[in-house]
UniProtKB/TrEMBL annotation:
This is 4-amino-4-deoxy-L-arabinose transferase. It comes from Mesorhizobium muleiense. It comes from the Bacteria. Keywords: Membrane, Transmembrane, Transmembrane helix. The chain crosses the membrane at residues 57-80, 128-146, 153-174, 180-199, 206-224, 244-261, 273-296, 302-321, 333-351, 395-412, 419-436, 442-461, 473-492.
Length: 636
């Protein structure tokens, strides 16, 4: 007797598209119509290790292709307009420098800042796969430019496939195979809305998110191999950027908790995680950090000081598990307490400066005129006060996800997947309250329990009342950041309509000088050092042969201060700065927000004079740029 396909029409097309691939996923698993009558928690009977992984991978690939297709349908606008994504532009410049002959260990950006540049705090781990794509395509086409374009599309797409696959697999571990469709839909919409996985997203945050998702997924189920893989992901994520330290701490705590509470699997999990973490931490140090920088006291990049703490933690956890493998909980607890005290003391002795404000050494003027305006560094209370329409889209779904996991734990008791995922989600949400950049992790983590909630609502709605159907629709809606964003912005715009609400994205990019075409006339000028606002430093590095003085990076303290002195000082003071720094051109973008901020901060400064049309005589306007978004002046 044939199956009634009409009852599950929304899934029919995708299921029968995948069916010829023989992926091992039944119709009931795909649609979530399996019997849930015996379920007592979020989790149903756990699937075997390989059950459905091929289907999950194929579905993730399909979802990622839809995401890329949507971008292609609009002409990949990000390829022609960075939209203010300075880090991706700077990453491209760093990769070009490396492929152009700069040493693997030399992370100087020589074309930004005072003469000699400054050392970036980024890791080569991110550069390697992107450079590999560039070189492979260049070898086939004979064009490095073609290689870069392909890399700008392919690299984020590959990461989106990995992220979606890990989200789906984690959702399976949490609540069974019926979560696949909700995890894919919520995941694809959320990741696309975040902007970390769209074309030209070469920044390190997307790779960190993938490592974080892998770290979490591998810890949700017991097994020393999984735990070892989780430890490797934790170390690589940390080596890429120290902002992931809170999640590494949670991962270590999860492995320690497994040792403490699970006599059967705990020792293997702790040993696997500890050795994987320590081994990868040591390898990352040797492979990516020059020996001359090992012992430099720095908290924004990986170093031997931090590697020592990582080695103590990883090897110490493995040793504690080995020594107490046949002992009871009191002995394990004592061993873990000793380890925690040892690692904490080592961190205080070796890198005490890294336990406080990461920007403690920043010039006060840079803190006032730059850091306090950096979007990703804003705390929740600033967003509530200044951009209330952005609160819901960043904090609603993580809050709901926390509620889902807490409720499941209270109802059904402590279970490994729920409690561990809750730990990561609470940590990421706490970080996002301090700095909104934490939402790069809280939003993806939240997808996993949200998928479980929607899957349960879909199950309850099948053949049930209209009320159950409405609950399912409601579950879908509150799980999507896009819904929260659209709703809150609609309300905000109804209350106070924005004057530029009708401006197109391309128009905004042109006015704010983020579009690549903005720099065409500048690129035609003889190479020199350009004085411009920090927001335009990275795009100029990536699209022109010039040097720039400013860029939105805290290590470029001297260059950024010089630019503030020039634009906020009197014309005479500005001229002195320009002579000292050998400035040949001044680039002025009246439509960029930073320009307006400089005028507000210094109404009698050089920037204010230029905005008013009272540029000093030693600034010669380049006539063909006067009607352009970016106006150029020769400095005499």
């Amino acid at each position: 007797m044939g199956r009634d396909r009409s009852a599950s029409a929304p899934h029919l097309e995708l299921y029968y598209l995948l069916k010829p691939l023989r992926l091992g996923l039944s119709w009931d698993e795909f649609t979530g119509t399996i019997d849930m009558s015996n379920a007592t928690t979020l989790a149903i009977a756990r699937p075997s290790r390989l059950e459905g992984w091929k289907a999950d991978l194929a579905a993730s690939l399909l979802a990622a292709l839809v995401m890329v297709g949507a971008q292609a349908a609009t002409g990949f606008p990000a390829l022609f307009d960075s939209g203010g994504d300075n880090d991706s532009m700077m990453r491209l410049a760093q990769i070009r420098d490396w492929l152009g002959g700069q040493s693997w260990f030399d992370l100087h950006q020589y074309r930004m800042g005072p003469d000699g540049g400054f050392v970036m705090h980024w890791s080569r781990i991110v550069d390697v796969p992107i450079a590999a794509i560039v070189l492979a395509v260049a070898a086939l086409t004979g064009s490095m430019a073609a290689g870069e374009v392909v890399a700008e599309i392919l690299w984020p797409a590959l990461l989106s496939i990995a992220a979606l696959f890990l989200i789906v697999r984690a959702a399976r571990l949490l609540a069974g195979p019926h979560t696949m469709l909700p995890a894919l839909v919520i995941g694809a919409i959320t990741l696309n809305a975040m902007g970390l996985f769209t074309a030209r997203a070469l920044d390190h945050h997307n790779l960190q998110v993938v490592f974080a998702l892998a770290m979490v997924k591998l810890l949700l189920a017991p097994g020393w191999r999984r735990a070892a893989g989780s430890g490797v992901c934790a170390a690589l994520m940390l080596a890429i950027g120290m902002e992931t330290a809170p999640y590494v701490v949670v991962a270590g705590a999860c492995a320690a908790a497994a040792l403490l509470f699970s006599r059967k699997d705990g020792p293997g999990d702790a040993i696997g995680f500890g050795l994987g973490f320590a081994g990868a931490a040591a390898l990352a140090l040797v492979a990516t950090v020059p020996p001359s920088s090992w012992w430099i006291a720095q908290c924004d990049a990986y170093s031997a000081r931090l590697a020592v703490v990582a080695l103590l933690g990883g090897l110490g956890l493995a040793a504690t598990a080995t020594v107490t493998i046949s002992k009871g909980m009191p002995a394990r607890l004592a061993g873990l307490l000793i380890l925690a005290i040892t690692v904490g003391a080592a961190a205080i002795l070796i890198a005490p400066q890294c336990l406080g404000d990461p920007f403690v050494g920043l010039d006060p003027r840079m803190r006032d005129f730059w850091l306090n305006s950096v979007a990703e560094a804003q705390p929740l209370w600033n967003i509530v006060a200044l951009q209330p329409e952005n609160v819901a889209q960043n904090y609603a779904t993580p809050a709901i996800a926390v509620g889902i996991l807490v409720t499941a734990t209270l109802r059904h008791g402590v279970r490994r997947p729920e409690v561990m995922l809750l730990g990561f989600l609470v940590a990421a949400t706490a970080v996002s309250v301090w700095q909104i950049r934490g939402t790069s992790f809280s939003l993806p983590f939240a997808i996993i329990p949200l998928a479980a909630m929607v899957a349960a609502a879909r199950r309850d709605a099948q053949g049930r009342t209209a009320k159950a159907t409405l609950k399912m629709v409601f579950a879908w809606l509150i799980s999507l950041t896009l819904v929260w964003s659209a709703g809150s912005h609609a309300i905000a715009n109804a209350i106070a309509p924005k004057q530029n609400a009708g401006a197109t994205t391309a128009g905004k990019g042109k006015l704010s000088c983020t579009a690549d075409a903005t720099y065409a006339l500048l690129a035609q000028q003889p190479p020199t050092t350009v004085l411009t606002i920090s927001n335009l430093g990275a795009p100029m590095i990536a699209t022109t042969p010039h040097r720039v003085l400013a860029g939105p990076y805290h290590r470029n303290n001297a260059g950024n201060i010089a630019v503030l002195d020039a634009f906020m000082g009197t014309p005479d003071q500005a001229h002195a700065v320009m002579r000292r720094e050998k400035i040949g051109l001044l680039a002025f973008c009246p439509g960029n927000d930073e320009t307006g901020s400089l005028v507000d901060w210094a109404p009698n400064g050089l920037m204010a004079d230029i905005v008013k049309g009272d540029a000093p005589s030693w600034l010669e306007p380049i006539s063909e740029t006067l009607d352009q978004p970016l106006v150029l002046y020769r400095v005499h």
